[in-house]
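Hi everyone,

Forwarding the result from last night's run.
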Amino acid sequence: MDTLLTGNANAISDENIVKIFGDDTVIIADPSVTPRKEGHIRWIPISPLDDKFKKLFLTYGFERVIFLSRYTEPGFVSYDEIYRLDAILSLVRQIKLRQFIFIAPYLSEEEEGSDKGIILRGIIELLEYYRDTYGFTLKIIYSPGIVGHLHKGGFFTGIFTDIKNKKKVILDKTAGSRLMFISHEDFSTFMYRLLDDWRDVSESIHLLPSGYETTDDLISSVKSLVPDADIMPAPGASDNYLEPEERIARERYGWLALQKTTDMVPGLYKEFNENEHNKLGFFERLRSRIRLPQKILMVIELIIGAFIVELFVNISRSSVQFRLIDFRLVFVVIMSTIWGSTAGFIAASLMVASLALAYYMNGTEWLMLFYDPGNWVPFILFYITAAICGYTRQRKEDEAEFVRDENTKLTNENAFVSDLYEEALQYKNEYKQNLTLSRQGFGRIFDVVTRLNQSRSELIFAESIPVIEDILDNHSIAIYTIYDAAARFARLEVASKGLAKRAKKSLDLSEYADVIETLKKGELWINKKPQEGQPCYVAGVLNDGHVTVFIAIYNVAFSQMSVYYANLIRVLAGLLENFIVKAWQYQSAVRQREFYNGGGIMYEDYFRMQLKVQRDMSDNEITDYRLFKIDGEGRSADEWEAILRGKTRYNDSICLGNDGNIYILATQVDEKGEEIILGRFEKAGLKCIKIDEMYPLDDPKEGVESKESK
């Protein structure tokens, strides 16, 4: 599974990253990492806020994202973390993300109300919104600070550096506070077990450190290594950490933190000293930091070189041995060989001026110097030497440039071939999957037909959401009904688990006129300019030429905007149309058996069946309902039908119970809708209360008439 690891990735060593992910392809993207590649793991120094990150994310189409919060680094403050996370989540709508793991810091009670706590709550709310919208599995791992691996910006790296520089160290925790650290090795062990025994259930898991250590224990451990270390806790009262209610890490994965923080300190300090010993010296660091532009460096070398040549010429005048060496010619050769023809000709010109000045200082007149051709020979040789050496260097550079160009072309060709190969593998996997699905096709069709082949439309709606989600691999489905061709609104029947709480309970059909016109033609409506809150696909169910069911698919991945996907929706809509229309026809035929005098008041038996269907759908979080009870006052079904006309919706179910009371099952009603309904009945002078259940069937009721007697 292609995995993206971002955030505080440096907290985990390379060996433990390999341990966690095994043979999975892993991209570690964070500005703090060093670019490299080892096997199937690649480190890329890029931030989610960078423009190139989108291309990286969509190219790989990650199925799993692990975001390691920077707050898991003790003492670290990051105010842009929520923006980094939002940048990643905004790309989720274009791929099919399956798993998102957020490693959150384990906060104390005091930190819950701090800036860190507020930011963390905002992050979790953002994650839950995207989880509900796009249907991926979200796991939030509350982890203590991850330590044990020295890296730039790390907790212990900062402490040991300040101690080495004789600086005062003030910890971010107060005296007596519990030391909430775990080793990166223990953390890696848990992550390996989590991925190895993955469960598609969104949940929160808390990790606890080994034993009970305090800030005072850490200070004592550091001072045992460096007695003169000036280290102290932060001022204030000690922090309190609540014990988590769940024990998933211990009970399900058999995980316990094994390494204590104080046991890790000596090894970390030893590693720190070894790293300091291997660091570059002062001059090496200076040389590595000084990077002058090439032209400026060439000018500096020309000036300094010309000065040195003049110095050597003056020094060697009295030496017989050095008089045999032409320092000016050597300088021309060096500059033209290193920098090329341009620098060579400049050096030759400087040396010509130097030699001419030397002739003049030796008594040669300027007139004789220029009119005597014999004096021109050394000047000409300077330029010839510069031209030959510069040409030689230029030819070597051209050859090297040609080789580099060829290498670049070969690299690009290799990358192109690799892309073709990966694309071929992708197509192979898709064909293999399609072949597998085709072999199972009859079984899946049989399963769909069996689940949708119900005599009641309510049962069909209850089964339709899991069927559509399974076939379309999408979890943002909403189904609306339009029972009257002249209706102004479509009422929500069922919706996907993540969409049920946010979907509109009714749609104003005047805003969907173009959609209705498309559906009346028996076509699929495709949103070519999608906006927030609008469906991407809409399919309809027709009955006598009128749109009666409105199937909306809201959030689809970029790969699902295809002809294949659209045809799949058409097939499912056709199946639903076939079964729903037949169910309505059946219900019309048996209406006399289920409703009093064929009107709008149900018999209790049928009403209880409706109530059970709604309860099952509510348990699956694809709908919501409320059950109300009105004092029957001894009235008949016909009287109550006249009283309640105009006070209930067409998709509400009304029952005259065997106990003589009226029961109303209001679908797709939340707490706000509940208050509206109660207020409506109160204005009508009816004694209405909300109840959770009808009376048990085996309870004796005096004076209750049977259904037949009524």
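DSSP finds 24 helices and 23 strands in the chain.

Cheers,
N.
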